[in-house]
Specification:
The protein is mostly helical. It contains nine helices and no strands.
């Protein structure tokens, strides 16, 4: 660790966030995203696109500007660079990096069929009061059958770029590179707190909270253990890209014949 990294780390340790600030900074962007989703989804559906497009628009117009903008604001306020604000950027040996990212990605794959019944249970028994279109982030195939193939493909391409590639990088910079180091006083509990709040921040898909925690907790612990958001960025991008591949299959199956 060089002198600049040591100085940045010491600053983050000194700048530990209070419980209230931790809650607000973890959850506020999610509140704004779900408000945007609820407001824009009916308009998007009226234009012939699935409500899922509203989530992707929320990612572009709310998630990325808020989270990346906040990091830039903090850097400018402190008269420093973004690289000083975003921590946990230690290099990981290439072989170890590949093995770790591969193992975590495989965990996501093998755990998916295990946690899927949990998602279904919460969707049907806890959040069944939500309108049907609200569940589109959960890949409910029948909700997509009403849309044209062109609308579905446009949605997929846009989502692949915004949600598959851009959002994971920004989220990892914000949640693991900025927020996680600033609750380091919690020790080994910090990744758990960060993961739970990160899951809750997805207010537009609350039925996935338990499964999201189970799947993502090892990723956050790995980033914390290695002090490297590069690990979590790689796994997060791979996971979202894999989800995009699954979504494309769902779209092609659901599109009108």
């Amino acid at each position: 660790m060089d002198a600049r990294s040591t100085s940045s780390w010491d600053s983050a340790v000194d700048e530990q966030h209070s419980a209230a600030r931790t809650l607000v900074l973890h959850l506020l962007p999610g509140v704004l995203i779900v408000a945007f989703y609820a407001a824009v989804a009916p308009v998007v559906m009226g234009l012939g696109f699935p409500a899922l497009m509203a989530i992707y628009l929320g990612t572009l117009f709310v998630l990325i500007p808020f989270e990346l903008g906040y990091l830039i604001y903090q850097a400018r306020k402190n008269g420093t660079s973004l690289g000083t604000i975003v921590l946990y950027r230690q290099p990981v040996p290439k072989r170890q990096f590949v093995l770790l990212v591969g193992a975590l990605f495989v965990w996501g794959i093998i755990s998916y069929p295990i946690v899927l019944p949990l998602d279904t249970f919460f969707m049907e028994n806890v959040f069944s009061w939500l309108p049907g279109w609200f569940f589109e982030p959960g890949l409910i195939t029948e909700e997509f059958t009403r849309y044209s193939t062109a609308a579905l493909l446009i949605t997929w391409i846009f989502g692949f770029i915004v949600n598959g590639l851009a959002a994971p990088v920004v989220e990892e910079m914000y949640f693991r590179g900025y927020l996680l180091p600033r609750i380091s006083r919690l020790g080994a509990w910090a990744p758990l707190v960060n993961t739970v709040l990160f899951s809750l921040y997805h207010f537009f898909s609350p039925w996935l909270n338990v499964s999201r925690i189970i799947q993502f907790l090892p990723v956050v612990y790995a980033a914390w253990w290695k002090r490297s958001i590069y690990v979590s960025i790689a796994v997060h991008v791979l996971g979202n890209v894999a989800g995009s591949a699954l979504l494309l299959f769902v779209f092609l199956e659901a599109g009108p014949s």
